[in-house]
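Course assignment 3, question 2. Fill in each field.
Student: A.L.
Task: Predict the tertiary structure for the chain below.
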Amino acid sequence: MKTRRNRSEVERELGILFSKGGKRRNHSKQSGTGNKFQMLVEDVREGILVFELLREQLWYRPNSGIYIKLIVMLGKCKQPEKAHSLFLAMIDEGCSVNHEAYTALLSAYGRSGLFDKAFSILEQMKNSHDCRPDVFTYSILIKSCLQVYDFDRVRDLLSDMAVQGIKPNTITYNTLIDAYGKAKRFTEMESTLVQMLRLRECEPDAWTMNSTLRAFGGSGQIDMMEKCYEKFQSAGIEPNIKTFNILLDSYGKTGNYEKMSAVMEYMQKYHFSWTLVTYNIVIDAFGRAGDLKQMEFLFRLMQSERIKPNYVTLCSLVRAYGNAGKVEKIEAVLRYIDNSDVMLDTVFFNCLVDAYGMMGCYAKMKGVLEMMERGGCKPDKITYRTMIKAYSIGGMTSHAKEFQNRLASL
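Answer field:
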């Protein structure tokens, strides 16, 4: 049944849901990764409802662009079958199906690891006259394969691109460099970078630099990281805040606190605004080094800059205080949490369990389980294993046995 509703109102609702980084509902707590995914699922659900409302309007005309955006959103929240249903509905309503629509569906299957279906769609595209795959199609599928470290399929896709006469672009090369670096396949990463540099149409950018620096810095190859940084700078590629965060993280994790401090001074001198990630990196680094004074100074500075700490920040504080045996400081962190809107997750509670266990505060450690229940978090294997280890070290075998039984029941 067709209904009547203001057209601009319906289109505005869809626009908010489709906009990149569009306005979301206000949440009373800051969210972790799992909650962000749930927010995406909720947005998709709202998008489908608004779309169904749109289709009921008297003025509605099928729009392939709206269908494609919904298919992309469903793919991001790993609902490929629903994406396929929308794809079929799009055809039934007489919308023109182009390579963009096929690519969106291929991406939905690829994101969920359903590669047989994704590659089947790729073959359909290759055999069509007006929906042939382009570099964007291949880059999306390559990225999906790299996320599960299926390097054989990636090699086949690159060969197929060459056969089809499709040249990789900067995005393709950046995706490869980033994945090879994360997998510590440095030979392939360097080879890909060399290939990229040989092509005039594929100039490296800040993303290329950051992926390369992260790979070497994350594996402790500080000299190589610094050499690459100098080469990228000499090529005219300017660092951004992510670049400095990578340098800070790499220096911090290898104990190069002087160099880390030098980067911090450079950022301040040239007015690079610190982000939440920046603060989390330096707070964690000084905390692990046992420099509680500097860690606390940075935490206060963070708040004065009106950057809200998240569960990562608080984990770093708790871990540092646990290592230093500062029970009263951990209690202060918990009081801060009670008066804040930080969303806690199991990772934070596991960190708290570990800190209390290290200090031999067994009653407080067990009390964390009640805190988890109140916060809507369930203990996992790490929670119980941490408690078992603490009880075992403390010679409390009966308590260790109790949690061994709980662990076995998970």
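Instructor remarks: The chain is about 70% helix and 0% strand. Residues 275-343 form one domain.
Grade: pending
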